Target: Methyltransferase
Amino acid sequence: MAYAAGIVRDAIIDFLTQHQREASTSEITHAVSRLIGPVASSSVRSYLNLNTPGLFTRVARGHYRLTLTGETALSGDFALAHAGDARLIHADCFDWLAQQQENRFQAVVTDPPYSLLEYSPTHTAKLRAGKGGIWRLPPSFDGRQRAPLPRFTVLNAADRENLWLFFARLAHSLHRVIVPGANVVVASNPLLCHLVASAMSSSGLELRGYLVRQVMTMRGGDRPKNAHNEFNMVSVMPRSQWEPWVLLRKPLEGRAQDNLRRWHTGGFRRPATDKPFGDLIRSHPTPAGEKRIAPHPSLKPQGFMRQLVRAVLPLAQGEVLDPFMGAGSTLAAANAVGYRSVGVEIDADFYQMAKQSVQRLSALKLKNE
Ligand SMILES: C[S@@+](CC[C@H](N)C(=O)[O-])C[C@H]1O[C@@H](n2cnc3c(N)ncnc32)[C@H](O)[C@@H]1O
Model:
């Protein structure tokens, strides 16, 4: 049967809009036939081809989805909020990344969960209840209550294997959505950074070294448990005074200058013309004022985040992604230095916290700025 111009095309659009994901030509033909009466699959195919690219995207041989644009493409099926130039998505980042277009982001700065358990719903509930689980309170030597830290030393061989697989999967998911030359910077710790580096560089990203956040942490330095007096001159582990951030990059297309011209990536923005960005950044624990604005257990300080985020876009062009946004310290830093950014958070409470905190954190005036 011959249909008036546009009827088949509109029926395909109706079906794919409801379907919300890709479909094969035969699924589309069946659906369109149900909507408007019998249609030959050759006719559906020609409408699809005629409008691709544009209305439809061919995702694999004989499989199509609606071409999404702008905000719809970014948020997909997930909740979206704005905070200045930052966009906040409430989603599991792996589901969300799978829906994003290729070559979409120019840099990634992120602070992922480490034990893979600490931010699971069970352990987040234990953290909020203040007892049990993988979270511990570090010793209080000055009478002040300290924020809980996740315990990385409880990871066994199977946990480490899972951690490796998690970071390999993360690198694989990121690789598609970032442009050639994009910097990927991942917060880590001295016990596990070798796993992150090995897993993420196994999935097509190049390991480019480490950035060091120089900070006095609450990790290590303790005397042997239950034998403090006997071994009062011993620390089982050194008191950690630095935090490694693993630095990776999607391989360049051609030389650095070619990549910079085409993709605006492939280097670091200098703090000043006569000063290169350095791999040691002096920092401090997150100030109490920032924690009051965003009481997330892993909140990173704006002083450090602003220096880091500023540096990852060499030409100050593009958009920074944080797939594990937490309360949004990366996004707040991006706003503060004038960049666009996108953050993804799986936990509903932390997502709400980020919606309320990002603008307030980015508005903070810091010393030495
Ligand atoms: C270490 S925290 C990040 C804290 C952040 N840097 C800040 O300053 O607020 C990791 C965050 O990732 C979130 N998360 C864990 N798994 C996730 C996933 N699959 N997708 C998105 N977010 C996830 C956790 O709920 C947690 O808030």
